[in-house]
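During the reporting period the student researcher (J.K.) took over the structure-prediction task from the postdoctoral fellow and processed the backlog of single-chain submissions. One of the processed entries is reproduced below for the supervisory committee.
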Amino acid sequence: MKSYRRELWFNTTQRREFINITQQVEECLRESGIREGLCLVNPMHITASVFINDNESGLHADFEKWLEKLAPEKPHSQYAHNGFEDNADAHLKRQIMGRETVVAVTNGKLDLGTWEQIFYGEFDGKRRKRVLVKIIGE
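J.K. obtained the following structure tokens:
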């Protein structure tokens, strides 16, 4: 069995962003040479998420509205976590959107559905962030 590991780095410009990373993950798969196996993609930050969904701007706007209703950023004083930091909402949003995704690799391709894309969800941005891609298989 082969194993491949690579970190993807991003400079986020907003507190919250959804970044389509499908092409970067496909590049990792090509680089790995693995034809059959599993591909794990996860953020290396506790206020970020990796998830699979449709690449549609209206849906992304809906995510933003929905997440803000469930875990509003302000007032910061509503959260016990907020003291030194003001990112309790980002931790909660990450729990809602999930930590990571695993995609099957078949015939050297990511086994994604018709409209499925892989996204990095940032909930406490405006700085450099990273994602781990780990691929195992043959």
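The committee noted the following: Residues 57-70 form the longest helix (14 residues).
J.K. will present the remaining backlog at the next meeting.
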